[in-house]
Each structure stands twice: as structure tokens, then as C-alpha cells.
Amino acid sequence: MEIGGLFTALLFGAIIGGLGRLVIPGRQHVSLLATILVGIVAALLGTAAATVLGVANTPGIDWIELALQVGLAGAGVTLLANRSRPKLHR
């Protein structure tokens, strides 16, 4: 992977991860690095899912692919936030 591709993946991962955090209500205690990593993984998985569904290459903006990516990022951020949140015992 070239340096330009690495920067693009980091930027796109940050955007997808940030959008994933926005769709989840409440405050998430997840670091910026974790959000970016979740965004990168969600972008890759969302693209793979869109390819399988046959909606990866559409004219214009690939809204379905973007929705899949953001949804997966939201799910990933939720999993991380719930895992790192301390459990309260009654």
C-alpha cells in the first residue's frame, strides 16, 4: 500500500467512524483511534456487502453502500462503547 492509499484509508475511516458515532444516541466513551479503526473495518465490510448485493457500482453516489458502511460503523462503535462501559451491580 502506498502512502497516499494509507492516508486515504485513515481519512475515509475517520469519516465513516464519525458518521457511525453520530447515528448512535448518547455519549460513547470510545477513543478517536478506535473510532477510526472501526470506520476502516466498517468501510471495507460495507463495500464487500454492497458488492455481494450488487449495489457497489451505481451511477452517482452509492447511497446504499454508504448506508451499509455507516450502519456497520455505528454497530462497531456501540459494541466497543458497551464493552468498555463499567457494569453497575445492584
From TrEMBL:
Top-rank lineage group of the source organism: Bacteria
Keyword Transmembrane: yes
Keywords assigned by UniProt, alphabetized: Membrane, Transmembrane, Transmembrane helix
Bilayer-spanning residue ranges: 6-24, 31-57, 63-81
Protein name: Transglycosylase associated protein
Organism (species): Lentzea waywayandensis
